[in-house]
Design brief:
Blueprint: H1 20-34, H2 40-64, H3 74-95, H4 101-113, E1 126-127, E2 135-136, H5 139-161, H6 169-186, H7 189-195, H8 206-224, H9 233-250, H10 254-260, H11 262-285, H12 297-303, H13 308-328
Antiparallel strand pairs: 1-2
Helix pairs in contact: 1-2, 1-8, 1-9, 2-3, 2-9, 3-5, 5-9, 5-11, 6-8, 6-9, 6-13, 10-13
Length: 333
């Protein structure tokens, strides 16, 4: 299969997986201990994170306990991911524009009464970084569509990246910490006005969630560093990716997430291109051909002779640069 790992990874057989469960427990407990329980953004992020974690847990359980190498079927997994993503997208379409859940309901009713044609306030527009006032109106349907793809796409992107020891968790920590900075500034009226970013009342509380995610991720990295003593599994990768996407939508920084999470994006594109080209050439020539030696991209570099630790650390370095570039959008406007 195209996505099978290199033969050198067979020595990892038997390493405990589903370590993401401990990461999610750490995030949930830490967040609930320190957050404001009345904050609606905290709850929507937790629901998405734990919901995607549940999907990953079922997938891992079938692989590990039931010895089913395929785990949850792709269609079934995508259905549940989509269901959670759509519900979150509909809720966020109105909650980023309203100061309370009561106002959220009022906006939703107004949207229904308008024949599903109501527009949203400017703070719900797609913000283009590096410009003070450039943004694109999305409308309710546009916002829901964008949010759905950001959440589901981020979840799967992190999951595809999680193929080497420490490869996915450290970029997740760095991107999550940076999003925490965006969340704090977005939830502060003075800072948001000074930096020309939308003021989202209550978004600053997400700094607690992002801090918990960074802390739990670093703790997990202690045991996931090469040679890994435990793997994160889908339960962790799907959940953390969904969390990153949800936070990015709330703080209105979808494009910045695309920049900072460039490693996740490239890894996903490598799989899409590899599979598409393989199917195309098989249909045209009767024999499937490959663009890369192996997908995702990190396996391609392994096949070219890079050591696993070289791939991981170099991808970390790239992520550091991308995160700094993403943070620079706060001032370079």
């Amino acid at each position: 299969m195209l996505l099978d790992g290199p033969q050198t990874h067979l020595v990892k057989s038997g390493t405990p997986t589903m370590g993401g469960v401990l990461v999610l427990i750490g995030i949930a407990i830490s967040t609930l201990l320190w957050c404001d329980w009345s904050n609606r953004f905290i709850w929507v992020v937790l629901v998405v994170t734990l919901g995607y974690g549940a999907i990953g847990w079922v997938d891992d359980y079938r692989k590990v306990v039931r010895k089913d190498p395929n785990g949850m079927r792709s269609g079934e997994k995508y259905f549940w991911q989509s269901l959670i993503g759509i519900v979150a997208a509909v809720y966020l379409a109105f909650t980023v524009s309203a100061p309370s859940n009561e106002k959220v309901w009022e906006l939703f009713v107004a949207w229904v009464q308008s024949g599903f044609s109501m527009s949203l306030p400017p703070k719900a527009d797609l913000i283009v970084p590096f410009f003070k006032t450039v943004s694109y109106p999305l409308g309710v349907w546009g916002f829901i569509t964008l949010t759905y793809f950001v959440i589901v796409g981020s979840s799967n992107a992190v999951n595809l990246t999680d193929g080497l020891d420490g490869l996915a968790i450290m970029p997740t920590v760095m991107v999550g910490a940076a999003l925490g900075i965006f969340a704090y500034l977005t939830g502060h009226a003075t800072y948001s006005r000074y930096l020309f970013i939308p003021f989202i009342q209550g978004a600053g509380e997400l700094l607690i969630f992002c801090g918990a995610m960074a802390g739990a991720g670093l703790a997990f990295l202690w045991f996931n560093a090469h040679p890994a003593q435990v793997f994160m599994g889908d339960v962790g990768a799907l959940a953390l990716g969904g969390a990153l996407g949800t936070v990015a939508v709330i703080v209105r920084q979808e494009i910045v997430l695309f920049i900072m999470g460039g490693i996740f994006v490239v890894e996903t594109l490598s799989v899409m291109l590899q599979v598409s080209y393989f199917k195309y050439t098989k249909k045209k020539y009767g024999e499937g051909r490959r663009i890369l030696r192996m997908a995702p991209l990190h396996h391609h570099f392994e096949q070219k002779g890079w050591k696993e630790t070289q791939v991981v650390i170099r991808f970390w370095i790239i992520t550091i640069m991308l995160v700094l570039f993403g943070l620079s959008t706060l001032k370079l406007r």
